[in-house]
Every structure is written in C-alpha cells, then in structure tokens.
Amino acid sequence: MVNLTINNRKVSMPKGSTILDAANKLNIKIPTLCHLNLHDIKFVNKVASCRVCVVEVEGRPSLMPACATPVTEGMKVITDSKRSIKARRTVLELILSNHPQDCLFCDKNTNCELQSMASELGIREIKYSGEKCHNEKDTSSHSIVKDLDKCILCRRCETMCNEVQTVNVLSAIDRGFETVISPAFNKPMHETSCTFCGQCVAVCPTAALTEVNNVSKVWDAINDPEKIVIVQTAPAVRVALGEEFGMEPGTSVTGKMAAALRRVGFDKVFDTDFAADLTIMEEASEVVHRLQHGGRLPILTSCCPAWVKFFEHQFPDLLDIPSSCKSPHEMFGAVAKTYLANKMNVDPKKMVVVSLMPCVAKKYEAARPELGESELSDVDVVITTREFASMVKEAGIDFLSLEDEDFDHPLGESTGASVIFGTTGGVIEAALRTAYEWVTGKELKNVEFNELRGMSGIKEAKVDLDGQVLNIAVAHGLGNARKILEDIRAGKSQYHAIEIMACPGGCIGGGGQPYHHGDLEILSKRANAIYDEDRSKEIRKSHENPSVKKLYDEFLGEPYGEKAHKLLHTSYVKREKL
Fold first, then answer.
1. What is the dihedral of CA 56, 60, 65, 71, to 10 degrees?
2. CA 278, 283, 289, 292 torsion: positive or negative?
3. Of 362, 459, 525, 541, which residue is the catalytic one?
4. What is the C-alpha end-to-end distance of the chain, expressed in Å?
5. pLDDT of the chain, 578 residues: tens digit per residue
6. Domain boundaries along the sequence of the chain
7. What architecture is domain 216-568?
8. For a tag on the chain, would you pick the N or C end, based on fewer CB atoms within 10 A?
C-alpha cells in the first residue's frame, strides 16, 4: 500500500493506483473528460489527452493529470488550488473554442459530458476565437453517424474499439490541428470492418459519434393512414428504459412500456420475447441435429448482428460454425409479414414492422439484403431505447403515471427463457433448457444455469445430457470472442456450444441503451431485473410456449423443417478485413 494525502486528508492506496483513484476513494471530485475506467473488463483509457483533471503535486513544477499519475509514498496533492482550477477552465475554454455551438439541437443535448462540465466550471462565454476544424459528417452507414467537428480527441472510442472490442477501426490520423480519430485514410464507416456494435457511441462524451436517428421515419409511418404499423420490443429494453425517466437502474417497466407504445400510436404492440422463444426452437433443434448427425461443432449462437459482422470480417474461414438462425427480431419480422399478415388480413406491403432494440447494430442488420424476401425486408425500421424515450417525451406522455398493459397476441406471449436473452449467457441458457428435455426425454426441474451468469468475460459450464457431457462457453465483448475463435481456428477448442455477444454485459449494455458511462454496476442491476422477470414467469422453457406451438401447428410445420428454414434461417458472407 502507498500512503499519501489529498487536500490534507490521508489515504492508503494499492501500488499502481492513480491520484484520481485515491481522490475517488475520498469522494473528492476531480473533473474528467477522456478518462474511462471499465473496472469489470479491466480496461482504462490511459491517454490523459484532455488535461481537465490536472492537480498540484508538492515538489513538482508542472500540474499533473490525476487520471494518469501514479501515487507515490508521501505524495501530497491539492486538487482545488487556484492554479488547478484556472488551468482546467483554460483547457475547457480552448476545447470549446474549437467546438460547434449547436447545443440546442445537438443529439447529445442534456446528455453531453462537455456541456455538463462547462456548466459545472461556470463557463458562460467562449474567450478564444479563431479557425475551427471542419470535416464532412459521415452518414454512410445505417447505424452510426460520425461528426468529427464534435470530436475532442479524448480517444475513448479508440480504446473501446481497439482494446476492448479488438476491431481496430478507429485511431488518430493526421497531425496537429488536423488530428482526428477516424478509420484509416478517414474512410466512411461502411467501408471498414466496423461491426456497428455501438460501444464507441456508448462511451463518446460528445456527439462526435451517435446512432442514426430513425424517429422521423417511425412518426411518418404512424401518421400514414395507409400503413399498419406494428412494433416489437427486445427483452433488454424493459430493464433500461425507465432510466430515461429518472427511475433506478434495473427497474423493469414492461407494462408501462407496452402502454407507452400504444399511446405513441402503434397499431399493434408485440414482444420480441415471443420470437426469442421461436429462436430457441430453431437453435436448439440445430444443436440437437449437429450432435446426432455428426455436424460441425462447436455451434455458435447468431443472435447478435455485431458479432456476426465481426466473424465475417475477422474469421471468414469459420462461417460454417455459427448457427444459421436469424436473430429474434428478424424472425419476428418474417413471421409478421406472413403468418400475422394473413391472420390480420393485411397486405404485407402495407405493414411496417418497427423494432425497438437496445442495439445500434440492429439498424445495420435490418438492411442486410439476405434478410427478407426480394424487396420485402423482414424489419422496416429499427429504433433504440434512447430514441423511443425521446418519442415518449416528444408526445408529452407522462411515462411514470402509465398503468401497466400487456402485449398483443398471438405474437406477444413469451416464457422466462426468452427474457434472459437480454443479458450475457441468456441465449445459451435458454437453449439448454429446451435441448436438455429434447435429448434426454426428462423434465429439467432446475432451469437456472448459474455458471453461465455474471460479468466474467468468458464463462464455462459442463451440462450432462444423460451421459453425454456438453462443454458450454459464453463470451461477451468482442475481445473475448476473439480469444475463443482463435482457439477454434487452432483446433484447441473443446466446446460443443458457445454464446457470443458483442457488447459487454450482452444486450443490456447495447450501444442504444441509456448511457451508463462505463458504470458496470448499472449493467449488473439490469441483468438482475431480467432474471427476476424470468422467475416471475409461469412458463420458463421456450418449447412450452403455447403460441409458438400453435405457430408451428398452423404454419411452420416442424422445427428446423423446410418452411422454418426458409423463413427463419439465413446465410453469411465472407467480408474483407479492412
């Protein structure tokens, strides 16, 4: 341990800690912009590029960045000296002098850390004027907008993209005043290996990186009398949406969310959980089929579009390993525009399927040409949790006072197995609940696989299917996925089935969720809420969902059969690594 004093208060810290760590222990606030500490996944943005956290250290002539200065024995630190405060203000004023002044209509207005810090430090005018950087806004992708005029060179996105996700798309290019954080040669995002996971968006302190906003498309569809607009909502949304209205993280708002969707104007409100149960029917069938017929193992789940794009770019030699199942919201769209359209006596071309998702990559996924029949896409529009919250606020709906409502049927009934899709480990756990009973012919009484839960980057479990032991793995975060895939490529993997999610924590930490600013305790609270909802369900196994059974009886036929394969499965593409 290292002993030091901060503002004349004594504190002991482990060797290797920073001044900022020590100040946080004492609840002494030091402002930061570039700092990003993802404790549970052991990554820290160490570049100390913004310099707004400078403090005085006795015996050192220069002010020191608190986020990157290690503590030493006997160190004496002053965080609130006149010199430190003046330096922070000057640094922030210089950053603001090269920043657009469009706060009123900026996508991050009221959610911008730069804006908040300017308010906290009492900055009411821009003292410095002169030339400003200008770059063309990149709106080339379906998922992410890159506005480099708003980049403050904090390099959080670079840390997330390169160290946590290992996608290696973002880095500093050019020099001096022309420096920006961008893909090589400042290429448009859609021409790179970007997976559109949105983790760069989740950690960006300004609006340099934001999601493509589809709210106006949804309003246009709702207000078109010729359209039947239906919406589906993912399991992770219900445990995070409340945060946008001041509720505690981990508060489940399923009933209020369904009510709000109706108030906004959707004609039918369905649950993607139904399609998650449907996904398990197909995915568990595929697992059993590969086990019984000597198919390629391990099988990897394919619900996450960012992870799918990752292996298409990074591991194109392993395209035969992932499940061919579409993701749940795409399965829902396929069923809605066939089975549901027929039941409602609606022309599928007049039906607009909107997906409310925690994910930025779902926007890209919905535009994949292989997902849909000819010109009719499975899903027409994707909006994120944040976008829907903005619609509720725009419509003047008092979210907190809404009475709980249920989803519409027949595509609104779901089980506990489908709810846990929203957190890391949930998809494979749900699949095991069904695969176990199909393979053994016995009832699975304890449906909770605790070894597959939690925030560890890679989790493992062994499941005994009447003498046949399955080795299971779960990875969340693409850096962890890379480790598993490299073992598979090298022939070292002993796993039979693997779940991979691109975002830390799984969908609860998706790029379209309310900003959690690297606080993984928030993700844990969201996960716990999902498990609570699972336990509250009367039915907790996907193959026991009566509406899913009816869908197969009336329309699809057998799971993993010809019709199901045509509507609910897809193929993958070898993509260049750029």
1. -90
2. negative
3. 362
4. 45
5. 999 999 999 999 999 999 999 999 999 999 999 998 775 556 778 789 999 999 999 999 999 999 999 999 999 999 999 999 999 999 999 999 999 999 999 999 999 999 999 999 999 988 898 888 899 999 999 999 999 999 999 999 999 999 999 999 999 998 888 899 999 999 999 999 999 999 999 999 999 999 999 999 999 999 999 999 999 999 999 999 999 999 999 999 999 999 999 999 999 999 999 999 999 999 999 998 998 888 889 999 999 999 999 999 999 999 999 999 999 999 999 999 999 999 999 999 999 999 999 999 999 999 998 886 657 899 999 999 999 999 999 999 999 999 999 999 999 999 999 999 999 999 999 999 999 999 999 999 999 999 999 999 999 999 998 888 999 999 999 999 999 999 999 999 899 999 999 999 999 999 999 998 767 789 999 999 999 999 999 999 999 999 999 999 999 999 999 999 999 999 999 998 87
6. 2-96, 216-568
7. 3-Layer(aba) Sandwich (3.40)
8. N
User: Has 283 been annotated as catalytic?
Assistant: yes
Instruction: For residue 370, indicate whether it is catalytic.
Output: yes
Q: List all residues 6 or more positions away from 226 whose beta carbon is below 8 Å from its beta carbon.
A: 350
Q: Is 260 left (phi over 0), alpha (psi -120 to 50) or beta?
A: alpha
Mark whether 286 is an active-site residue: yes
- Residue 323 is among the residues annotated as catalytic for this protein: yes
Q: Would residue 116 show up in a list of annotated catalytic residues for this protein?
A: no
- Classify domain 2-96 by CATH architecture: Roll (3.10)
Q: Which residues contact 285 (CB under 8 A, 6 or more apart)?
A: 438, 559, 560
Please identify which of the residues 73, 125, 226, 370 carries the catalytic annotation. 370
Find, among 55, 85, 84, the residue nearest to 71 by Cα.
55
Write down the catalytic residue from 53, 200, 304, 507: 507
Q: Is the full-model pTM beyond 0.70?
A: yes
> Active site includes 365?
yes
